Amino acid sequence: MNYPNKINKEYHKTINYANRGMDLEAIINEANEYYLEKDIALIYKKPTPIGVVKVNYDNNKQTIEKAYFATQSTLDYNGLYKGKYIEFDAKNTESRTSFPLSNVHAHQIKHIRNVIRHGGIVFLIIRINGLIYLLNGPDFISYIDENTRKSIPYEYIKQNGYELEYNYNKGLDYLKYVNVIGGFINEKN
Question: Rounded to 5 degrees, what angle do the CA atoms 140, 143, 146 make?
Fold first, then answer.
């Protein structure tokens, strides 16, 4: 970029893929805070289970210096809504045409199947093409069981998922469609 007095500055965009999902998680966390504040639902982000190996106690501060993943984590969020157990995961994809199934680990797929079998509400919140969708767990599992592709086409997500909108007060109001998939109301809109 050329500035007055012949000062040249170049702009380089740095892309950090380590925290791709954090902004999606931030707006989900905002919605969960709203739901809790208004006594609508109890939904929390689950901490990653770690085992601590070494702690540093310098200057009255405890800092974890060495740790390991204690167990495989399941899905990102869980809680209660209208007396039913609810669990879901937030996923992002840079692909414009499909959602890679490699974004969901085998132990997570097994866990989704278990939640369905035990009568819980389970789903994925997927950001693709700048839009955010809720894909019901049974629709996700049905796609996996009936197809050999290693990704879910964007068209399938558009047709079978629910496009979520950001609400200034509520954040990402996903419970609007949990009412539908949970059987609390009968209409999609």
Answer: 150
Q: Check: CB of residue 26 under 8 Å from CB of residue 125.
A: no
Classify residue 2: in a domain, yes or no: no
Angle at 139 between CA 137 and CA 140, to 5 degrees: 60
Alpha helices in 13-148 (DSSP H): 22-37, 106-117, 137-146
- Give the model's pLDDT for residue 169: 80
Q: Which of 37, 142, 120, 34 is nearest to 75 (CA)?
A: 120
The dihedrals phi and psi of 83, each to the nearest 5 degrees, come to 80, 5
In the structure encoding, which two tokens stand for residue 59, read together? 């200057």
Average pLDDT, the chain: 84
pTM for the structure as a whole: 0.77
What share of residues in the chain are helix, strand, coil (percent, to 5)? 35, 35, 35
Give the mean model confidence (pLDDT) for residues 144-169: 94
Q: What is the CATH number of the domain that holds 167?
A: 3.40.1350.10
Task: Please say whether the dihedral angle defined by the alpha carbons of residues 141, 144, 146 and 151, taken in this order, is positive or negative.
Answer: positive
Number of structural domains found in the chain: 1
